[in-house]
Amino acid sequence: MEKKELIYEGKAKKIYKTDKEEIYLQEFKDDATAFNGLKKDKIPHKGELNNQISTYIFNQLKENAIPTHFLEKLSPTEMLVRKVDIIKIEVVCRNITAGSLVKKFGLEEGIELENPVIEYYYKSDELGDPLFNEDHIYALKLADKFDLGIIKKMTLAVNEILRKYFLKHGIKLVDFKLEFGKDRFGNILLADEISPDTCRLWDSETNKKLDKDRFRFDLGEVEEAYQEINKRLAEA
What we know:
The protein has helices at residues 46-63, 100-105, 134-139, 145-168, 213-216, 222-234; strands spanning 3-9, 13-18, 23-28, 31-34, 39-42, 70-75, 78-82, 85-96, 112-122, 131-132, 171-182, 188-191, 199-203. It is of the alpha+beta class.
């Protein structure tokens, strides 16, 4: 597979064309950002760790019939993915109170929710990824009711699969962000990555944070937390 020109660079990844029109190469970076890019640094080996962790998770989802853009891990920091047109909606699923749910509503951190809370954010770095609702999505013509129904159903299915998967490895899935795209046939696929960059992951016994919150809030041991997630998921 030949790596060709760079077509997109985000805060944590680069996307390249390949010699096959419908296959892209996704490269993970060591760059870390928080608070809409206001805080920046590099975390050693983050690219390698997120690539491997995402590979474990995408394979788990594949085993459970969730359609994703993932094809195969190519190198320590690279994976091959299907070409998709990204839908400009970031979907957040919350199982336990943390982050903005605590900040916005004055809730105590760590309360297990009776039902998952689904939130939608407009994917726009320039606007700071604002929270919006279904009516905004339809008004902006980002998705119709049918597509949004599929996205929500897939999000809840992913949540059920990954809650059990992480818990088996001694990890609570507190919340996570998903992105979706459409392939050339119009099928909706889960895209982007699933890693400690995009999930809140706590030790199931101690509630120790094992995700990017360690970077956000200067808790230290950031690389060690990512390594711990990778180590646990590597176990059978």
